[in-house]
Amino acid sequence: MFRKIPIVLTAEEILQKAFKKTDKVQIIDRNALYRKKKTIIAKTESFSNTVVSTLEQYVKNFPSIDNLPTFYQELIDIKISIDKLKKALGAVDWARKTCQMIYSKQSRSLKKSGKIEFLLIKQQEIFGRISSVVRQIDKELINLIEAQKILKKFPEILDIPTVVIGGYPNVGKSSLLKCLSSAKPKIAQYPFTTTEISVGHIERKERHILKRIQIIDTPGLLDRPISEKNDIEKQAIAALKHLADIIIFLIDPTETCGYRLEEQMNLLSQIKDMFTDSIFIIVENKADLKNNDSKYLKISCDTFEGVDKLIEKIFSFF
User: Fold this and answer.
1) 3-state secondary structure (DSSP) of residue 213
2) Domain that holds residue 114
3) Are 220 and 237 a contacting pair, CB within 8 Å?
4) How do residues 213-233 score in pLDDT, each as one tens digit?
5) I need a surface site. Which of 126, 130, 166, 221 has the fewest CB within 10 A?
6) Which CATH number covers residue 132?
């Protein structure tokens, strides 16, 4: 839905586009007077239509925020601000209607008059008024340019069984996503490598029925109150809240992630308290380095130890 959003132009770029099209307009008529009159009218109409249709394209092709799934609404609010985006789209729609009205009112006098001098004055008046309206919304157009870049990077979330991976930074969430699914997330040894939501899928046939499960990797969370979490962490919370049928909470018992096991367990308690109705699968990663006697499922994303057991457990819920 976000891939269809068009490239947004600045006010000056829209006007340049409109004038460029206007310059190409030529009317053929044997009568010189009629040719000049028709050309002036056609150029004015071309300029107006180009501006109006460009603005209309932005309003129509940005998704209706209120009709989006709650997860996307929350993601927009975190990364852009819903109010800011609505204000920008509202301003663009106002400009579209205003430009359309300016041309509609003035075009009647253009068609009635036969005086070339009067037509040229009216044409410049229309050009000037429409240009002024477009320049008034330049700030909102720039906001839409930024919003378009952000929205196009949003993951495509399917309405299928979904597993969301959560935990501290650098515990191996992205590596686990890679082990479980077709996704190829960025993996590196420093906190907050994952700053966006990543999506993968896992499939298998059971009794001639193809089961498909969505796996989502989230940015790392820290053990601190929700009010203190940054925008990167808030994306993870939004995914856990709105998308997860199952939450895989990943733990690094080796503490090579840079965080103590106690901190990780505190975060687990916090997440469990926040999502009391969710199914949790608690998994210890890096079993090739350290294997506790805890009750949790143990895996290694490096050696794939225990990954098959985890997949079996995931599919057992669906």
Assistant:
1) strand
2) 11-151
3) no
4) 999 999 999 888 888 889 989
5) 126
6) 1.20.120.1190
